[in-house]
Specification:
It is built from 11 helices and 18 strands. By secondary structure, it is α+β, with helices and mostly antiparallel strands.
Length: 478
């Protein structure tokens, strides 16, 4: 165990995140605060109490949102405390060194940018993102948003992509005057709110893929219609030249199709939604695209070629984004706490009640088919497996099972639905927007039997994939 002197050298503030959760289950980030705890080292009682003023998020980062009383205690107590002036001197020295590193890096970045523009003046219009503001309105070099090796309870890169895609997407709120407000939230704030903008998704996915040993980078560019967008790029061995794009919002993956010369018309097989690319970065590297065209199709991903990619000094990046800086200490992913089976039973029961009530209002009787409901379990499991691994399995088994439980002369209809929440009423309302689901729920005819099945797949943190299937079978009228 470290003594007081050893603890004094630890620059690792406590990160407090305040989240407001509505009755509907929706969460919103309220405040984010970094708390310096080392004044405990000069407290004889081993305890310090204080009142913190919490500030808002993003464009409201300078607006107070409330006060919170906190008490910090050192357990076990230190055998010897430090003098207050020793702690103050250490904190001041760290602030001074940090300011000097940031000043030096800013001077280096300005010179680097000047050299980049000298290569080709049109580079000024490319999406080369060097800095971004976090939820506390602190401007940080973008490499600071990616961790070198974030590990947790996920088993593979594909499962990591699925996990990230299940975290809710919410574009940053517009700033005053209607302009776009960009917020690259810290990993802790992003996970606590369980939603965020595309930059939050893509930086965490990049961190996870690096943890699995892949050579991963965040790419900043545009999509097909010109909207600014970010995605992850992984590079295979140089000899193979394999480049893979990962879309963080959907979990989809695409192989890059490279052509060295521009020709008229679209490239065959270029199914990815990306149009241009301005830069690549991860936790320790940053590259700006120097190629004549920033079109994704015409871009070579040979990062060792200085004529194609202008690299930043890794030592310069490490000076402001190095592992010794507290903001880079990522929280470990927590294992899922939700009992997916029990939650699915509860949601399924509520959906059955809603279906029965709806049919009752239509003066229709409701009879459930338990065998058909159980058969649909394998289909929902196969859907989730396909999303997680990209491999389709179990199709033929499901079709055979349906034929066995649906008698000759009867018709089967099914409607699967994937959700990110467990609210049965919202799920039913979403399903009823589909003509197919509405036709199933309102099914009329001879020997009508209905089925509803819910499967809930829990991932790290509070991310869940909820699959619902509505189905019916009825005797066909000739």
């Amino acid at each position: 165990m470290l003594d007081a002197t050893g603890l004094l050298s630890l620059f690792d503030p406590l990160h407090l995140v305040v989240v407001r959760t509505e009755a509907s289950g929706d969460a919103a980030l309220v405040a984010s605060h970094y708390l310096e705890w080392r004044d405990l080292l000069c407290a004889p009682s081993g305890r310090v109490s204080r009142t913190l003023e919490l500030m808002g998020i993003g464009v409201e980062a300078k607006v107070p949102v409330g006060l919170i009383d906190v008490t910090i205690e050192m357990v076990p107590r230190l055998g010897k405390v430090l003098a207050a002036d020793v702690v103050t001197a250490q904190l001041e020295m760290e602030r001074s060194r940090r300011s000097e590193r940031e000043r030096s890096f800013l001077m280096y970045a300005k010179q680097w940018w000047k050299e980049y523009l000298e290569v080709r003046p049109s580079h000024a219009s490319r999406l080369v993102k060097l800095f971004a503001c976090d939820e506390t309105a602190t401007n940080r070099m973008v490499c600071a948003y990616v961790a070198g090796a974030t590990r947790g309870v996920l088993d593979s890169p594909s499962q990591s992509a699925r996990f990230i895609s299940l975290i809710g997407y919410e574009a940053a709120a517009a700033g005053l005057g209607g302009g776009a407000s960009e917020v690259w939230a810290s990993c802790h704030a992003f996970l606590a709110a369980n939603k965020g903008d595309v930059e939050n998704h893509v930086t965490l996915l990049c961190s996870l893929l690096i943890g699995f040993g892949l050579k991963a980078y965040v790419a900043v560019g545009t999509k097909a219609k010109g909207q600014t967008h970010s995605w992850v790029v992984t590079l295979g061995p140089a000899a193979e030249g394999r480049v893979c794009f990962w879309e963080s919002l959907t979990g989809s993956r695409y192989l890059h199709n490279y052509r060295s010369t521009d020709v008229d018309g679209p490239l065959d097989g270029a199914v990815y939604p990306y149009r241009t690319i301005g830069c690549l970065f991860n936790h320790s590297e940053f590259y700006a695209n120097c190629q004549p065209s920033d079109s994704v199709e015409l871009t070579s991903f040979d990062l060792t070629d200085a004529a194609k990619w202008k690299a930043m000094s890794e030592s310069a990046i490490a000076s402001v984004c190095g592992a010794v800086l507290h903001w880079r200490n990522r929280p470990s992913l927590c294992p899922p706490l939700l009992d997916g089976v029990a939650s699915a039973v509860t949601m399924e029961t509520e959906l059955r009640r809603l279906v029965s009530d709806y049919r009752g209002d239509e003066r229709l009787t409701t009879r459930w088919d338990e065998d058909l409901s159980f058969v649909m379990t394998q289909a929902l499991a196969a859907y989730e497996s396909e999303r997680s691994t990209g491999v389709t399995t179990g199709n033929q088994d499901f079709q055979d099972a349906v034929r066995n439980v649906v008698p000759d002369g009867h018709t089967f209809k099914g409607f699967p639905l994937q959700l990110l929440h467990r609210n049965a009423r919202r799920a039913f309302a979403t399903a009823m927007k589909s003509p197919v689901a509405k036709e199933i729920v309102s099914c009329r005819g001879d020997s009508v039997r209905l089925a509803v099945r819910v499967r809930i797949f829990s991932y790290a943190e509070s991310a869940i994939a909820v699959w619902v299937m509505f189905a019916c079978k009825y005797k066909s009228v000739q």
